[in-house]
């Protein structure tokens, strides 16, 4: 216990307990397979075609996930805010190269967690296995919600939903990244913002 500050254990416990009940002893076990990092803005924590071995728990800052085409065009898939888990899940599970890039949009603090060691802890401790399942559930729910929005909402409504999810999105994330996420141009986003502001 002396290796880890009480504040770090408690803050991590509080976050993980929002998913599932985790004892402080288990939190210490999780911290043992993790490394706390400060990452500067505009750094790729997961690169395209890299076979990943880590997942991340974002403590502060903003991270984007995007898909890059052969021509170099980027399509933003998601934005991650504190506190959230980040990683190319399919690539981690299948040990395949990542199709997505994860990049910091500002200076970030995060825990880098060894994925294989996490799976070993899942086999060893039922509470870690339950936590892992709950996190996967939350990731799937978020993915499904995003899919429904893309299919059923127009660009204005998708932008409104994004502002609900990230209230300060316009100051936190560059406009061209927001436009890419919404599947529109920066000019279209500017028009939508003006309409909303005028109303």
UniProtKB/TrEMBL annotation:
Gene3D superfamilies for this protein: Jelly Rolls (2.60.120.10)
Cross-referenced SUPFAM superfamilies: cAMP-binding domain-like
Domain Cyclic nucleotide-binding, first and last residues per copy: 18-121
Protein name: Crp/Fnr family transcriptional regulator
Gene source species: Mariniflexile gromovii
